[in-house]
Amino acid sequence: AAAGVGLIALARPLATRDTVMWPLCVAASSGLVLPAASGSAPASIAASPLRVAAHPLLQAPPAVYSPSKDLAGRGAKYYDGRPPELSQSIAQALKEVGKRKICVITGASSGLGLHAVTALTSSYEGYYVIAAVRDTAKMDEAAAEMGIDAKDYKAVKLECASLASVRDFSKELKRLLRGRGLDRLVCNAAVYLPTDPKPRFTDEGYEMSFGVNHLSHFLLLQLLMPDLKKAKDARVCIVGSVTGNKNTVAGSLVKPVADVGDLEGVKAGAGSVMVDGSRSFDGAKAYKDAKALNMMTVLEAHRRLHPSTGIVFNSMYPGCIAQTQLFREKRDWFRYFFFPTLMKAIGSYVSQKEAGERLAQTIADPQAAKSGVYWSWNGDAKSIGVGNAGGAGGDLFENSFSGMVQDEANGQLCWDYSMELVKPYLK
Fold it and tell me: Is the pLDDT of residue 74 over 70?
């Protein structure tokens, strides 16, 4: 459609009690909904062609969702307490590190995180990675396949769907660092659940995209700040996304659009299903809102902490990694054929290898040692086409956050509300 999307399907008119819903064109890859050309649409639709999906006639009454029912349905918590091997894993890692810089990377067992570990340990000297992952055996298998030397990393258990796990991981790392600083923190782990008809919840009752993508990393940053302060020239990178930036094609035209509102859902805390306080769940928007919070956290940390600590806080857009595990909820034809083909056509596609190299550059290259920056390559993604959309190739440059992400009032709310939620785990 607006982004050169094919595979357009026509929906039959949908009769309601007193009106007829006119045909719609649905862009299959993005959920973008546009009025069809045939016939004349009602004025309320024609006046806002990119907001058809939000038309009141298409909205179902908001459902009531329960974290306790979600827990009962899956039968167990994601985290059942500190694993006995946690201390041993971190202790072994710190014996091997020597004088190298220590870098913690979450979500390192696949996709962007795994390729960042590969690039960091092979292209830059003096780095040791603590791979904070859900499945340590999976990480070790993936590292062996990628040719990552076992002496350059250690897989350590971290379940981002549990704030208790984040607390235990951080406490054990801090104890075993014994006063040594933490040089790099990369917050990369994420879930994307666009097809879920109802929300999933973390162990503490937070909507999954919000809890994993934002809140777990916010807590991790707070707990590890004392250790980052001890290191020389420490850096923190929280991975961003064009989908959370409304000043891009993907962030403005591909619906639903990220909109955190006044962060009423964050303020309300556990049980809320959307960041803006809406009671109508939308998995795609939940992901985009969480990525917006990631970038807002970077800017607020830069404003609050960089001047006094010197720690560099930044974010980055790696490009559209069409085959990443982030899209594991999608069907194979979409993941391995349609979406990669489309992204190549509009200039957004980047391989997992190149995306990993970009993330490694963000945390290791002297060029990226500037705080409060949203790093990008090969175009700002504000238009489509090779050289414009953030795809393969190009040089590192400072991109711009959207107005919503830069808004200082919302940044303060994001920080303060999130801090209230994680307070019980800071003790």
Answer: yes
